[in-house]
Amino acid sequence: MAANRSSNADRRARIEEMRRAEQARERRNRLITIGVSTVVVLGLVGFGSFVLMKKSDEQDRKEAAAKAPIAAEKSWDPAKLGRNHVETAVKYDMKPPVGGDHSQVWMNCDGDVYTKPVPEVNAVHSLEHGAVWVTYNKQAPKGDVDALAKKVGKTKYTLMSPVDDQAGAIMLSAWGKQVTVDGADDPRIDAFLTKYVQGPQTPEPGAACTGGLDAEGAGGAGMGQ
């Protein structure tokens, strides 16, 4: 009898020891899970904060660029730039033109790169829609032309074409705004695009830059607003 009681006591002791060991393992696992979860949450919060801060910094940079003056930029009074739709040629006071009476059909300007001159009366309508027109003459190095073509091709509300008789090798025009730059790496290019693509100078913000005249002159009959 005494031997049985001793054996039962030993068994209960072993069972209790195993239970305590199992409970200890469970506590450790819970602590590890909580610790890992905390690290993951903190990491996600930190990453989210980093992304938000980066977006905020980028927005601040864009807003600052949109307000900063652009060196050697020329401006024309928008009130003195005609906006009538005409079917005849227009003699503009500047080259390339930055506004004035124009065709009822715009040049497609959804990052369109034209390798031949485009009609001024159609390009001016694109400017009215908030596009920036990048132009160059034969003095522009081919490397600069290629680099600008890539940039324009990735930027909505822009178009690019040669204008052989313009004064500067590379010029950018928006409605009532124009600047001559030194090359494709001139920081004023990005500043001008940031400031004037659908910028505050736009007479018809949000108007279409597709459905107009294309490179072959066979675009849709897009009507101005």
Tally of structural domains: 2
- What is the helix fraction of residues, given as a range? 40-55%
How much of the sequence is in beta strands? 5-15%
> Which term fits the overall shape?
rod-shaped
Structural class: alpha/beta
CATH architecture of the largest domain: 3-Layer(aba) Sandwich
Could you spell the SSE succession in H and E letters? HEEHEHEEEH
Oligomeric state of shown chains: single chain
Terminus-to-terminus distance: 107 Å
Radius of gyration: 33 Å
Low-confidence stretches: 218-225
Name the strands of the widest sheet in spatial order: 1-6-5-3-4-2
Q: How would you sum up the major sheet?
A: 6 strands, mixed
Average pLDDT figure: 87
- What is the CATH domain class of the largest domain? Alpha Beta
Region (Disordered): 200-225
Keywords: Membrane, Transmembrane, Transmembrane helix
Transmembrane segments: 31-52
Organism: Streptomyces cinereoruber
Task: Show the helix and strand layout.
Elements: H1 2-67, E1 74-75, E2 110-113, H2 120-128, E3 132-136, H3 142-153, E4 158-162, E5 170-174, E6 177-181, H4 187-196
Parallel strand pairs: 2-4, 3-4
Antiparallel strand pairs: 1-6, 3-5, 5-6
Helix pairs in contact: 1-4
Report on the structure:
This is DUF3105 domain-containing protein. It comes from Streptomyces cinereoruber. InterPro entries: DUF3105. The chain crosses the membrane at residues 31-52. By secondary structure, the protein is an alpha/beta fold. The chain has helices at 2-67, 120-128, 142-153, 187-196; strands at residues 74-75, 110-113, 132-136, 158-162, 170-174, 177-181. A six-stranded mixed β-sheet has the order 1-6-5-3-4-2. It is rod-shaped, with a radius of gyration of 33 Å.
